[in-house]
Amino acid sequence: MRIEILSRGAFHSALVHLEGSDRFQSDAGAMYRASSNVDIDVTHRPKGAGAGVLGGLKRMVAGDSFFLSTYSTTDDRPGEVGLSPTLQGEVRRIAVEPGRAWLCAGGSYLGSDARLEMDLQFQGLKGLFSGENLFFVQVAGEGDLLVNSYGRMTELEVDGEWIIDTGHLVAFEETLSYRLTKASHSWVQSFLAGEGIVMHLRGKGRLIVQSHNPKEFGSRLGKQLPPRER
Fold it and tell me: CA-CA 20 to 30 A from 158: which of 10, 164, 208, 226?
């Protein structure tokens, strides 16, 4: 399997080249093109994330699609699948290694090698007040993971501590511990400053952030739209 990142301006996408028994999965709806010898199997039961409809509902709570699409070739010829995120921004390939799982913020998971195991990790009750999703999508094993961002994506090597606005988080290695806390010295100052709850990461590992916050953009855009007619 080979993954090619296609980038032009603010609109990135990925082209997944499949051969033999290769299988790749993505959020349903992420595919925008596929060769004629690619079979698409749609399911709501990702490996490790709970069985049946319950697994799909948990993914929806995490900010991802209810369904997953799995791609494989139907003959001995190579095939390809084009995947793109909903929002304009960058796409990045992450090589997941055994014992170094990644946690993806809601909506940042685009696709992964079907051999990788997916599960959900609860952020804690403070996630209710962060304005973001309550769960992270955990991806573990060995294989390729695709994540997407809204705006520019930046990777940081953490060796110590970092503070990240929850709306700008894309993904991080599970070797980093985290806790949700107020941005300022008091809750009142935090919310008046527009920051609210931030994520405090500690340890050693890789962290990926995005330059723009999709929820903030949606809030600003929504105020400019005319009211709905009933």
Answer: 10
Which CATH number fits the domain that encloses residue 168? Answer: 3.60.160.10
Q: pTM for this one?
A: 0.84
Residue 97 DSSP label: B
Look up the domain containing 21 and give its range. 2-224
pLDDT tens digits, 83-138: 999 999 999 999 999 999 999 998 899 999 999 998 888 765 444 444 455 688 89
Going along 28-152, which residue ranges are E strands? Answer: 31-34, 38-43, 68-73, 79-83, 91-96, 102-104, 109-113, 117-122, 135-140, 143-148
The vertex-109 CA angle with 70 and 173, nearest 5°, equals 120
Question: Mean of the pLDDT values across residues 40-52?
Answer: 64
The tally of domains found in the chain comes to 1
The answer to whether residue 22 sits within a structural domain is: yes
